[in-house]
Structures are given as structure tokens and as C-alpha cells.
Amino acid sequence: MPVQRTPEQEAVVKNRGGGLLVSAAAGSGKTRVLVERLLDRILTEGKNVDEFLIITFTRAAAEELRGRIGQELAQALAAQPDNGHLRRQSGKLYQTQISTIHAFCTVLLRQWGHLLDVPADFALCEEEEAQVLMDRTLNQVLEARYEEVDPEGNFARLLDILSAGRDDSRLMDITLDVYGKIQSAQDPLAWLEVQRKALDLSGVTDVGQTPWGALLLEEARDTAAYWAGQMAKACALSQEDAALEKAYGESLQTTQQGLETFCQAASQGWDQAAQAHIPFPRLKAARGVEAIGAQEQIKAIREGCKKAVEGMLDPFASDSAALLEDMALVYPAMMGLIDLVEDFSQAYAQEKKKRNLLDFSDLEHFAVRLLTDEAGQPTDLARQWGAQYTEIMVDEYQDTNEVQNTIFQALSQGERNLFLVGDVKQSIYRFRLADPTIFLEKYRTFPPYDQAREGESRRITLSKNFRSRPQVLEAANDLFRNIMSRQLGEMDYTDQEALYPGGTFPEGEGYETEYHVLDFTQDPALTQDKQNRAQLEARFVAREIAGLLREGFPVSDGHGGTRPLQPEDVAILLRSPGPVRSYYTQALEEAGVAWSAEEGGDLFATTEVSVALSWLQIIDNPHQDIPLLAVLRSPLVGMTGDRLAAIRTLAEGDFYTALQAAGEQGWGDCQAFLDQLADLRFGAGEQTCHQLLWALYRRTDMLTVFSAMSGGEKRRENLLTFSQLARRFEGTGHKGLFGFLLHLSRVRESGGAVTTPAAPKEGSGVKILSIHRSKGLEYPVVFLCGLGRRLNFSDIQKPVLFHPKLGLGPKGLDRETMVEFPTLARTGVALALKKEMLAEEMRLLYVAMTRAKEKLILTHSLPYGPTDLKNLAESLACPADPRVLAGCSTVGQWVLLTAMARPEGAVLRKVIQREDLPLPKNAWGPAWKIFYHHGAVSQEAARQPAPSEQGTGEAVLRAELLRQLFWHYPYAAATATPAKVTATQVAAQAPEEPGVFLLRDPSAGPGPFQRPRFAQETLGLTPAQRGTAVHTVMQSIRLDRTGSAAAVAEELARLTQQAFLTPAQAQTVDPQAVAHFFASDVGREVLAAETLHREYPFSVLAPAEKFFPQTPAGEEVLLQGVVDCWFETEAGITIVDFKTDRVSTQQAMEDRSQHYQGQMAAYAYALAAVTGKPVTRRILWFLSLGQGISLP
User: Fold this and answer.
1) CA 1070, CA 1058: separation in Å to the nearest integer?
2) Phi, psi of 596 (to 5 degrees)
């Protein structure tokens, strides 16, 4: 029986007469209506299925859609068996272009690419190979630049900006980052030319005339207007109590007037705003106050206003002249960057042309060049090619970009035959260059379908959700009506965007949305056992899941009834599972609950793929000891260490020679292995890599052996992924085992990685996966966890920021003082990027909440307990103000603002003794269950089983059986923990978890860039090389020769003569700076110390959980480092660390010292452990400034 369509779905299927944009909410059946529209046009208009171009954004989605269309055609044919037209469609289906945009572009270019001198037999450059080729090409471009560098030229200015820290290794990262991001532009090189003009501000006199200044002024006006309103509210509150009005009234009114004056000034221009003053006169002492609640509200509003105004006024500390001067200083460096990106782009294009390669961006850009002319209008080819399509259907349109959208428009008949489906609220791939504003612009400007004229593009909104219970949908509606707006979220969440229940579910209780606020601040597990909050939250979630399983929580069975909840019905969604995945797997293990987690790790780091790769290496060349020994020690051969040692004694040379000698002497296992290896090597040159790999799998029983081991199914998937990697390599036109191995080597050397397959399988327990991975999936019960995780804004900390509309946002650098400063462009770009990031986080939250079919449970761990609630109490509003939301540090605070404003949020208001807090008026949906867990939360009892199950052993027996069937190695986290860390890897001590060190991200970038010798002559040493030279001097200088700059200079000559330093290194050391240190108070202490240690190396075993909190207790890692200088005093140990960073002011020194907090903390920990004595002082001495700073 066909499913009844809603009126909106019917309109999607039947509406004609113009382009159609379908805004399809989560669970609204968008794929179904796309298929039904296609079938309707086949049945009612006599169209053929191959007259439609259908674009999806993944290959898997394309194949799934083809299968859905095939099923619908089969059902229609079964109902009309004599319909010859329908019968023909089954054959035409496999000629229909249902593909990704890149597959479509490939077909187009193979047929018409010759018009652009693109050969039809081009090979596709996969991402791994492209990364290798880009790195090699950029290195060649940089080498050429270094050979002809002008010390006063734009390139040298660029080097200075990107080497303001300890090295200039960021240059390659920034160049590749900018190159990659401009690929979303229709013409990347033209975009760069536009930037050249945009950065030339020679004719500008007022910063407000620039796009960055205009954005900052608008933001400041809005912020000032909001806080003027809040201060007016505070004034009104003060009038409720005469004592308050007398003490506070004048000050509050003065601040309010200052805010209003600033708004007016900001409307006139930048300099007027920069001159405006917003006063905060001191509040007088208030005596005899009766309205204590009003007094607290006033103080909270005023404090929030003061903090917001300080941040708002930061950009206005300088007038237009100063800011424009700063932009002029950075202009040459940005011209150098644009020149470098252009040179690289051209060189990379030439390298690809030599190899007959096109990458994914090339496919799109060449297609655009074929389909549009210089004016952006469709070419004759576009009109001819597009004429074959009755309709162009694009799925997931919210994830398109400018280039792809240009292709769709060029092929369409004036956009009259475009059918675009998507949901902008689920656009979560901006990091992949998706541009949701393309969808939003159409959504805002297209008229509703029932109001559109003939030929006019129109829109239809599908808002009925057939996936989830009303309790889930209304929870999402309540939250997003409160937090999503055009100011922060890029769209308003109105009744039109809201979700409406369309599905039918069995009646029952217990389906309310739950919100668990977890306060571990008084939990002994945190305060005494030093477990972290993420670990305790995971245990709480595992107990809740176990309780639901024990009680047999009822979920729909798909036939109108219910069945007990199973582990595979539950999903745990996390923003970034990687750092905390092990906590959840371990907690579920302890609770006896089966689980399945996405991995997404390095494929080559797995044992099974490493063994397969080693086999390929010795098939190519057996005279390689490391891969040969890896194979011999693997489970496939199983030789022991003693056996290998005995073989090693039989012959000199490499190990393969010794192995051959063992075979000749009749060692059976050795001869059998040699025969197997010879068999695999024979004919290897005539096979493809994929064929050879499968021959290896068969002859060594590799799949069988590893499948039988722990985690066998996952190991098998990894080996199959490796074989697909070989097939992909050959699919790009490459051949040969040596070429494949070389390709893999280059991928790994360039920092690229192939991830292990990560999609959890059905029926394999509770799923633990990221929100990104969950898109398109659905689960009866969803736990949305980790809401207390801090938002990550690391992308706006880069030296040069990028925005597709605002352009480049660089840091500035004063070349004389070598001090970095934020430029006007950077401040504006950073503001725009932050807003876009917050909008993306909001959409991720929407995706996560709408994955739940029957029950949604949110968990939020508070770092500071009730203080977190107090900080938000005065900001409750419906809807919440975008500025308050933008100031939140976690997504959980967005949820908390909504929960505290709800009637059932009384439990939260009670915690901070604000039961009288006035609640904003709002029409809320079904009630939530809100819990505040505090005290010994980790010892709370889990959900109790239903009475029918108590007293029986069935549930316990089932849990034990599942625990044994799905047993996982409990110390998996320890296997991923390195044996050693260095002190320089330590970024800081965790502010929320004393005693835990935070490590720097090892993938953040390559190591220090060593400037080649031929470039040292013109540019000198890099900062890292200068630092090495200075440390060598401070280690080796004779202390009795430090009394003057002349004496130090003599020591430098001695060290150069004795080859401690090169002449270039000696020239970079300032004798005056060294002598100044030894003349200082700290230097004199060093000279007078009885126990002085310089360049003191240490190796200390430390608890692994100090560096890797997920590691089980009892594990240890080796902490290593070298302390520049330390000595003892009566009070304890003093550490002195020398820094060569170029700082010229006290403030710059204080700011830079924060970077070394973690390193110095690690030094202190190690010395205390080695000596048994306390470290009482940690001093950083900045030689360029001639000053030191003592760290707390």
C-alpha cells in the first residue's frame, strides 16, 4: 500500500514551471520525494530516466540512490506489467548519470577536455598523491626563491612575519592552506588579484570604508546597543529599592549614556568611535538594601557589561591613521604571499601536466571553463550539453560551493530545470569548503511555490518529520528557537523551520528528553583519585545505558508494538571522540555492555597492514632487514627472537643472506619461507598491485589468520581497505609494485595518513561515533555527551587567516622590534570566522539531536559546578541574545541557558538559590526531565530494573553473556601511549585538572625549518638556529670570562676556533646580551652558586596518566629533557631557561612567557623527582630584552 504524501510532499512531486528549491528538514523524507518526483515524470510525462542528471556528494549515496530508483521502477512495473515504457527504464537506469559532481566532471572532460588541451586519458590524482606532489613542488618553488631572495623584497618580509616565533616552518603550511581554500573560488588566480587590490589602502582615510572596519563598526554598534538596554534594565531594578537607587543609580545612568553616545559615534565613523569613552564609575556602598535579589542582578549585569565593553573597544584603541599604517607595514608581506601562492599554483599545474594528472579541484575548474565564458554566461557547449537533461537534480545542496554551483547553473536552462534538495540546518562541512550561504540566499529570495510565477524559481519547505517522537522534535524546536538566529546561526529558527511530528509511535511513558547536568567538583573520584571529568561522565553514561537495558526500555518494533531495547539501538554521539573514546569503551566494558566505536586511526599503524606492507617490501627487494624481520616475527611466520638470533650467526651481510644460508643448511622453516617468498616474487612484475596483494592474502592465509585474532573483523576490514588503496592507485593510471611502495612512502613522509574504516556495523553493540559520522543515520536512543567540551577556535590563531569574502587577515610584525600585532584585516576576518564557526557548531548540535528516534538524553559536565549556573543566570531570555551565546565557551552553555529558563529548570535555579529568578515568557513544548547530579556522582546507583525483571537472573545472565561475547582488550589505551615524551612537548598544565600536563598537538605542523646554507648568507640563520647557537654559548662559556662584552667576545672566538660554533652562529650571539645576563641579580646568583648545572639532561619515569589521562593507572612514560641551567639555594632549586625570542616590551615578554609555562612545569616536576628537593623558582631570561620573568 503506497504511503500517503503530505500536501508539501505532493507539491514537491508535482510542481513544475521553474527551478525548485526543497528545504527538507531532518527526517522529512527528502530522498523519497526525489525518487517519487523522478518516477512521476517518467509515468505522467513519458520521460526517460537517462534524461535526468542526478548529483549526490558521495559515491555510496549515488549507488544507494540508484538502488532506490531501481526498486521503485520494479514496483511500478509489477503494477503495470504491460507498460513497455517502464520496462525500458530498467535498462536505461544503468546508463543514467547518478554520480558525484567529480564523476560528472570526469565524463565531461574526457569528451570535451581537448578544447582546453586536457588529454582524454588523464589520470585522477587522489588526495594522498596530491599531498605528496604539492609538498615536493612547493619545496622546489621555495628553493628557487631562496636562491634569488632580496633581503628588502616582499618574500623576505613574508619570511619575517612567518618566523616571528622560533622558526619559519609555518611558511609551507600557510601557502598550502591559502592555495587549498581558494580552490572554492570560481577562478582562484582572479581571487588573488582581487586581494592585491583590496589590500592596497593607499586611498583610504577612514577605516570604516574598508570591509573589515565596516564589519567591526556594525558589531560594536550592535553590542553597545544591547548593553545600553541591559543597563537601562539595571537602572529600573535600582529604582525598586531607594537604597539601591541612591548608591547605584548615578553610576548606572552614566554608563548607559556612555553606551548610547558610543552608538551614535560609531554611526559617524571609525575615528569618532575611537574617541568615544564609556565610563564605569565606581559603585557607592549600598546600606540598608532590602531587594537583595535586585542588587545581585544589577551587579551581574554591570560586570557582564564591563567585560563585554572591554572586548568591544579593543579594536578601537587605535585611530584610522595608526591602523592604516599597520596595514601598510604588512602589505609587502601579503604581496609576497600572493606571489608565492601564484608561483606554486603554476608550478603545481605544470607538475600535474607532466604526469597527465588532474586533481579534484582541476575537475571542477576545467568544467567551469568549458561551460562558462569570460562573462560567466553559459557557453554553446553548456547549452548543448544541458539540453539533454529534462531536469538536473542535486541532493545535499546545502554542501555545495561556488564552483559547483556555477556548473549547475551553466547546465540548467536559465535555472528553470534545477531541482535542489537539502537542509541548510544540517550543513556541517564548511571545513571542506562547503558554502551554506549559497543555499541560504536562494531560501531567502525564492518565493513560496504557490506564489511563484511561471518560469520563476520557487521553494517548498518539508517540515514534517517521520523519524522521531514528538518529545525529541519539540526538544529540538525549543532549543533552536531559543539560540539560532540570523546574527548567530546564519538563519532564524521560526515556525517555518521548526520540525513537526509526522510519524506514528506506540503510546508509552518515559520518552521525555533528559538533560543531566553533572557536577563532579565534590566527587572524591575527581578530588582524591584524580580521575578527570570526561572519564567520570563516560562512567555515568555507561551506567545509564546499562540501566535502560536492564529495565528493557521499550522501543518501536516497526509493526505497531514495542520490544526491549538492545545495545545496537543506542548511540553515543561526541563532537570529537578521539581524546575520550577509550573512556567510553572502558566504561561500557565495566558495565557489561557491548559496544562498537569508530576508529579512524592510521591504517599503516595497524599490525595487520604493517605486516602486509612489509611483505610487499620484501617481494620488491628482500635485502631489507627491517621489513624482512617484521614478516618473520609476524603471526604469519611466527619465528621467535632466539630463532632469528641463531639465523643471524650463519652469514655476514644482510639478514636475507643469513636466511638463505639457513635454507642451504637444511633449516626447514627457513627454506619453506624462502620458497613461499620466491613463489610470490615470481611474476610479481606482471601483476597489478591489487592482484599481487590478493595473491599474498591467499598464499599466506593472511585474512584468515588476522580474522581469528582479537578484533578480527576490524583487522579484516583494514586489510580489505589496504587492497582498495592499491586498486585506487592503479585507477589513477599508475602501475608497478615499486611505484606503489614509493607512493606510500611519500604519503607518509608528507604527513598524510590513510584512515582505518570507521563506520560501525549494525548489530555490534552501542555505537560510539562523532556527530559528523552520524549524519544521515538514526538510532532509537541517542546519548549526546561531552557538551562541556570547550569550543575550539584554534583555526583563528593562525598567522594568516583566510575568508572567502573578506580575504586575507595577517598578523603584523614590527621589523625593528620583532613584535607581532593584530592588524585591522586580521581582527575583522577573525570576527567573521568566529561567527561562522559558532554557526557550524549550532548546526552540528541540530544534527546530533535529530538522530534520535525515540529518546534523547543529553549529558553536560560542568567544570566549575554552581559557578557555571550563576554566570548564566542573569542572561536568561527567550530567545537568548546572540551576544550572550557568542560569549559562551561550550555548546553545553547554550543548552543550559534554555534549560534554566524552562519551568522544569527549577532544579537548576535551586542550586544557586535563585528560585525567584524571573523567567522569560515562552510557549514550551513537552517537559524535559532535568537532573542536577552533585556530590559523589560517580557512586550514584544506576537506573533500577523494572519490577518484573527484579528477582530473576535472566537480565544478569544476558549481560554476562554479552560481556563475554563482546570482550575487548581492556588496556587498549596503553597500547597507543608512547613510551617517551619530552619537556618541550608540554604545552601547559590542565587548568581544570591539577597535576595533568597538556601536550602540544604532534600533528600541528612540521619541525623547525632549517634555512639552507646558501640562504643563510643573505637572510642569516633561522630563529631556531640562532637559539641553538646561544644555548651552546651558555653551556660552554667559561664563567670567569663573563665580566664584560669584550671577554664574552673572546670566548666566542675560542668556541668558534674549537668548532663548538660555526662562524655564522658566532655572529648571531650578542656578547653584550650575554654579559648583561651575568651582571644581573640572577646572573650573579649563577656565578656564586656552589652547585651549578648547565645543559642538564634528565630522564624520569612518570605516571602516564599525567600526560595521557585515558591511560590506566600504573602505566609509566619516560619524561626526557635538558634544563638550560639550575642551581640550589637554601630555599630550594632555581631553574633558569634562556630564550632568544625577539621581544621588546615587558608586555610582549609576559605574553610570550605563557608559551613556556608547560615546559617549565615539566622541568620542575623532573628536577623535584631527581633531587628530592622542591623547585622554588622558575625563571625565563629573554636575552633580546635583557630581562627575566619568574613564573608562578
Assistant:
1) 19
2) -145, 125
**Rounded Cα–Cα distance for residues 131 and 934 (Å):** 49
Nearest to 128 by CA among 1004, 750, 719, 756: 750
* Contacts (Cβ under 8 Å, ≥6 apart) of 197: none
Average pLDDT over residues 54-80: 91
User: What is the pLDDT confidence band of residue 957, given thresholds at 50, 70 and 90?
Assistant: low
Please calculate the CA angle 43-49-54 and round it to the nearest 5 degrees: 125
Give the other-Cβ count within 10 Å of 131's Cβ.
Answer: 19
**C-alpha Rg value of the chain to the nearest Å:** 33
What is the grid cell recorded at 397? 545542496
Per the listing, cell 566505536 goes with 597
Which of 135-144, 752-761, 1095-1104 is predicted least confidently?
Answer: 752-761
Whether the CB-CB separation of 366 and 118 falls below 8 Å is answered with yes
Q: Which three cell numbers stand for residue 778?
A: 538514526
Which one-letter amino acid corresponds to residue 123? A
| CB-based burial label for 433 (10 Å; 0-12, 13-18, 19+) | buried
3 state DSSP class of 118: coil
DSSP 1012-1039: -HHHHHHH---HHHHHHHHHHHHHHS-G
Identify the sign of the CA torsion 236, 237, 239, 243.
Answer: negative
Cell of 623: 635485502
Cell numbers at residue 493, please?
529558527
Greatest extent of the chain over all pairs of C-alpha atoms, in Å = 106
Output phi, psi for 1070, to 5 deg. -85, 110
> What is the C-alpha to C-alpha distance for residues 388 and 440, in angstroms, rounded to an integer?
29
Report how far residue 345's alpha carbon sits from residue 189's, in angstroms, rounded to the nearest whole number.
8
Residue 329: CB atoms within 10 Å:
17
The pairing of beta strand 766-770 with beta strand 570-574: parallel
Question: Is the separation of the CB atoms in 798 and 810 below 8 Å?
Answer: no
Q: 1132 to each of 1039, 1101, 1135, 1161, 1173, how far by Cα in Å?
A: 22, 22, 10, 15, 6
Task: Give CA–CA dist 693/697, Å, rounded.
Answer: 6
Output the CA–CA distances (angstroms, integers) from residue 893 to 493, 917, 927, 980, 1132, in the order listed: 19, 18, 19, 37, 44
SS3 category, 526: helix
- Distance separating alpha carbons of residues 108 and 384, to the nearest angstrom: 12
1192 - beta bridge partners? none
- For residue 1002, pLDDT over 50 is answered with no
Interaxial angle between packed helices 607-620 and 668-681, expressed in degrees from 0 to 180 and rounded to the nearest 10: 70
Hey, what's the torsion of the CAs at 598, 603, 607, 611, to 10 degrees? 150
- Rounded CA-CA distance 676/489 in Å is 62
Split at pLDDT 50, 70, 90, the class of 951 is very low
Distant-in-sequence, close-in-space partners of 63: CB < 8 Å, separation ≥ 6: none
Cα(61)–Cα(315) distance, integer angstroms: 47
pLDDT in tens, 406-420: 999 999 988 899 999
Cell 581554500 belongs to 181
Amino acid identity of residue 783, one-letter, is: F
- Written as one letter, the residue type at 946 is A
- Reported in sequence order, the residue ranges of 977-1078 that DSSP labels E, i.e. its strands, are 980-982, 986-989, 997-999
Q: Which grid coordinates are listed for 480?
A: 533552536
Would you call 718 helix, strand, or coil by DSSP?
A: helix
Write out the DSSP string of 784-832. Answer: E--TTSBP--GGGGSSEEEETTTEEEEEEEETTTTEEEE-HHHHHHHHH
Residue 708 cell numbers, joined: 581469528
- Which residues have a Cβ under 8 Å from the Cβ of 642 and sit 6 or more positions away? none
* pLDDT tens readout for residues 127-164: 878 888 898 899 999 989 988 888 889 998 888 887 64
Mapped onto helix, strand or coil, the DSSP state of residue 444 is: helix
* Residue 1055 grid coordinates: 668556541
Q: Are 519 and 526 in contact (CB under 8 A)?
A: no
Question: What predicted TM-score, i.e. pTM, was given to this entire model?
Answer: 0.77
- Between CA 808 and CA 161 the distance in angstroms is 14
